[in-house]
Amino acid sequence: MLSVLVSSIFLIICFLLQSTIFHSLSMGGIIPNLMIILTSSYGFMRGRKNGLLIGFFSGLLIDIFFGDILCFYALIYMYIGYLNGVFKKMFYPEDIKLPIALIIGSDLLYNLIVYIITFFLRGRFQFFYYFLNIIVPEMVYTIIVTCALYPLLLVVERLLERNEKEGASKIV
Amino acid sequence: MSPVLKRPKEKFTLPSKYLLFLLTCICIGIMILSFKTPNINTPLNSVAGMVLIPFQNGIAQVGSWITDKSDQLLEIKDVLAENQRLKEEVDRLTIENTKYQQERYELNQLRQLLKLDEEYSEYEKIGARIISRDSNNWFSSFTINKGSKDGIKLNCNVMAGSGLVGRVTSVGPNYAKVTSIIEDNNNTSGLLLSTGDHLIVTGDLTTIQKGMISFSKLVDKNNKATVGDKIVTSNISEHYLPGILIGYISNIEIDSNNLTKSGTLTTAVDFEHLEDVLVIMELKQTVEQ
Question: Smallest Cβ distance to A21: which of B48, B59, B169?
């Protein structure tokens, strides 16, 4: 229950930051993708089910405020969360390489899907322009923000785990 | 925990595979529904608006404060160099000014002919502040802090200064989503003021960083259109009121079909530093189908 509360608070804070303050801190008009960091991190930290639920709700939030079609982003984020959950077996908290790689991969995948569905299908074929001017800068900026956000998520997650164990041992 | 208590809990856990499948079906269902009924997200809008808009209001103020401060710091260096340059320019401009004062008389007469000023002031407008912007880098819609409570309706036109920003595409009780004309999937019907020819203005992500969007399908039989000409919203536009300034032609080319022209235009509004907008309360008159 506590973990649901914590992740929803993170979700709302990330959405608020991304849609407001990060536009003031944008580099060349590019903002980082906090929702992908969140979806991806909870995916490989907590598993497929949590990943897909966090993804679904972060996408839904974007859909409500900025989407043209309801549930479009929800669907993309949900699958990204689920795919990240597959890597839970390989995830160790001490290892930073896998999380970084997964977050880069998720951001790339997300942007490719958005490009293909909303741009490529409308006949905007200059893929390399969009790749170099939108996708790559976003990935770089997202990684920079990951370095600050991911450790925070990890620490909170460990505290939650410890809390759960203590709670369980008390009852036993 | 005792095993007796644990058992019913385990019954309810749904394997993630099925949950994924279920949610996918729900998503696709809602997507199809939202194509058919544009107002499907009204209840969601109200809930989300109540919870999140107060926060966004607050953070947006902090955000604009940060931008102000960082801009100030960056500008001090430039300002000193600019001051020197500007002093020289003042002399030059004083000479030019006298020339323009003569031309102003002529301009006033032309303005009266166009009646642009009068048309703008006829519309009832309310001011609104931008509180959040699209969370991905592909599109540039934003939300404003006025909603249906303040009388904003779907398809209300949005301006900033004297130029067109976009229109309201979704309304919540205390906020509204504005789709801007620079969005890549947005087409606006425009009118070239100098010749009265119609054209299509299309948002373009590849040129917007230079403050430009593209236009096409301009039939300019007499070759009168030149760089710097004004483009306004056309009277045949579906959602936009006629005569609102969109921008100025910055580049014009003849299409390969030799019939129409296309090119880029500089928008009248600086979309990068947009903070406050004006919403026109009057809606474009449409024919009921």
Answer: B59
Residues forming a β-bridge with B132: B143
ipTM over cut 0.95: no
Residues of B in contact with A57 (CB under 8 A): none
pLDDT tens digits along B199-246: 999 999 888 888 899 999 998 888 888 898 889 898 888 889 888 889
Which residues form the domain of A126? 32-157
Cβ-proximal residues to B146 (8 Å cutoff; 6+ apart), any chain: B126, B128, B152, B174, B175, B176, B279
A30: closest chain B residue by CA: B137
How near does any CA of chain A get to the CA of B180, in Å? 12
**B23-74 pLDDT per residue, tens:** 999 999 888 888 887 666 777 778 877 888 888 888 878 877 887 887 888 8
| Domain segments of chain B as ranges | 187-273
CATH topology of domain B187-273: Thrombin, subunit H (2.40.10)
A48 and chain B in contact, CB less than 8 A: yes
> What's the pTM?
0.81
- CB contact under 8 Å between B135 and A35, yes or no, is yes
Of B180, B191, B251, nearest in space to B217 by CA: B191
